[in-house]
């Protein structure tokens, strides 16, 4: 295994898009940021240098960082921010991740522009469990506001309502030619007829699940979230923020130019309903039709197309890629995911009824502490967090009823963690609720991948639904969209001592408090304990 060294200089950079200029945070002047390439089991050391005027942290999304939570990155959870003018040597420890992951800022909303792909190759070159591609291309979906993202965030927090709608979605940093003032700002993928391409897609969008489709071409999904999947073909993709999808594209259609198009899937809230495009263009001499063909995308509110695509993901589960799903779970957790409201003075907030929108897990609205939870845990500093995160919601109710009495879901603020004993098997059922508005929640767990053993619409039935769990080939994910007014069951082993954030990957939902933290205790023996902190660990 190799050690790769890289430098990330974070700085404010002037940027022009959609005929409008602003200053954005970039890494090494690039947007999207640099792609990092590594091989299974390698270590990456990134010297993060903060030359900006604001705090920053970098998270390695989907990297388990075994026993080394120090480099995970979420601000005030595993570290205090890297302050302007300071630096942090972040060590990223790869273990069994393979395929496409990514990195992004994990402080305020700076991940809007501070993100990039992390590609992990198999130990033997091209040793893929699918036909070897002729070329590989990262495809990063992004979201763009003409205004400064810091202003978007502060207006959003002030207003108590939804954030301002973005001005464009992007493919590899480009909006495509369907927007005003973006004619030449399009990502183009040139393909040779007869060749096969592995597209490694990352959804770095802030607030939406996306539908993606390439005109005239079916694609074959072969991986997600840093693990292989059983190949399946589809004419569209649904991808959550935080999630990655690896898929094969065969250039087997009539040489021409075709649009790749992406648009939101959204069942509630206010959102940008525009379509971003890239061009897939066959090489060679032929007459191109004047304009490329635009593929039809599933309807914006098509919950079934979103959930069904996600529901088709399966682990390979063959003899070279065995799975290791806990067949029984020692710890059973049931977490409700809710959007909430809190009254504002003079009904002056912009949420429904003039109130403030909030979100919660088991009715607790997560508050970031002043000192990183990991620092407090490791150094036994008291009063930073509580260890009372409940294993169930305070009361059971009909979570997906059309109307839910408000007293059942009034949230409390809290910085509570759930402690897991080393190596326990955990089953966690996420239950979406219909408080305020039912909506999908792409839930992400740091420090682990988990098996998605079941999902459904409506209320989870703890007697019946577990009988239908898939314990044969459940997909291994780090981010999973819990369907609107539905549930998703995951299982994992708490084999990674540390402090690990779990949250909705919609940026507005985590800002509203839809998150919590697991602390996995040390086990017995040196290989079951947190490693010591790095010398330059940013403290508060
Ligand atoms: Cu992709 Cu907590 O993050
Ligand atoms: Cu959410």
From TrEMBL:
The cross-references to Pfam families, in alphabetical order and at most eight, read: Cu-oxidase, Cu-oxidase_2, Cu-oxidase_3
Picking any one GO biological process from the record gives: lignin catabolic process
Report the CDD domains cross-referenced here. Answer: CuRO_1_LCC_plant (cd13849), CuRO_2_LCC_plant (cd13875), CuRO_3_LCC_plant (cd13897)
The chemistry this enzyme catalyses reads: 4 hydroquinone + O2 = 4 benzosemiquinone + 2 H2O
Enzyme class per UniProt? oxidoreductase
Q: Name one GO molecular function term.
A: hydroquinone:oxygen oxidoreductase activity
List the InterPro entries: Cu-oxidase-like_N (IPR011707), Cu-oxidase_2nd (IPR001117), Cu-oxidase_C (IPR011706), Cu-oxidase_fam (IPR045087), Cu_oxidase_CS (IPR033138), Cu_oxidase_Cu_BS (IPR002355), Cupredoxin (IPR008972), CuRO_1_LCC (IPR034288)
A GO cellular component annotation here is: apoplast
The organism's superkingdom is given as Eukaryota
Q: How is the cofactor bound?
A: Binds 4 Cu cations per monomer.
Tell me which UniProt keywords the record has, alphabetically: Apoplast, Copper, Glycoprotein, Lignin degradation, Metal-binding, Oxidoreductase, Repeat, Secreted, Signal
Q: Which cofactor does it need?
A: Cu cation
The Plastocyanin-like domain covers 11-124, 136-285, 389-523
Summarize the protein's role.
Lignin degradation and detoxification of lignin-derived products.
What family does the Swiss-Prot or TrEMBL record give for this protein? Answer: Belongs to the multicopper oxidase family.
Q: Protein name, please?
A: Laccase
Q: What is the lineage of its organism?
A: Eukaryota, Viridiplantae, Streptophyta, Embryophyta, Tracheophyta
